[in-house]
Amino acid sequence: MREAIEAKKFSALNQRVALIGHATIRFTINADGEFQGVGLSKSSGYEVLDAAALASVHEASGIVKRPQATGTQRLATSAVIKYQYGL
User: Fold this and answer.
1) Collapsing DSSP states into helix, strand and coil, what is residue 2?
2) 22 pLDDT above the threshold of 80
3) How far out from the chain centre does Cα 60 lie?
4) Counting C-beta atoms within 10 Å of the first and last residue's C-beta, which end of the chain has fewer, N or C?
């Protein structure tokens, strides 16, 4: 899951400015690996980074198959998306 999100984290950034920050995104992983209830838990302090972090989680939804050992119940989790953009 982490690799899928990291691979998508810059796709929504169009700006060419130097920004450093990290956003915490909360979401639930369904049995099929889709993410639900994606939302911002803690802001990076930059609206553009927060939006990019949210987009990266949305784009990573369903890409990685959920391990069978985790069962079929929904799992609430969060991910910290770190940026050092344009430096």
Assistant:
1) helix
2) yes
3) 7
4) C
pLDDT tens for 31-67 read: 999 999 999 999 999 998 999 999 999 999 999 888 8
Topology classification of domain 2-85: 3.30.1150
Do 21 and 49 touch, CB atoms closer than 8 A? yes
Q: What is the CA radius of gyration of the chain?
A: 13
Cα–Cα dist 79/7, whole Å: 14
Q: How far is CA 55 from CA 5, 11, 37, 69, 72, in A?
A: 9, 8, 13, 28, 25
Contact 49, 85 (CB under 8 A): yes
Write down the pTM of the prediction.
0.81
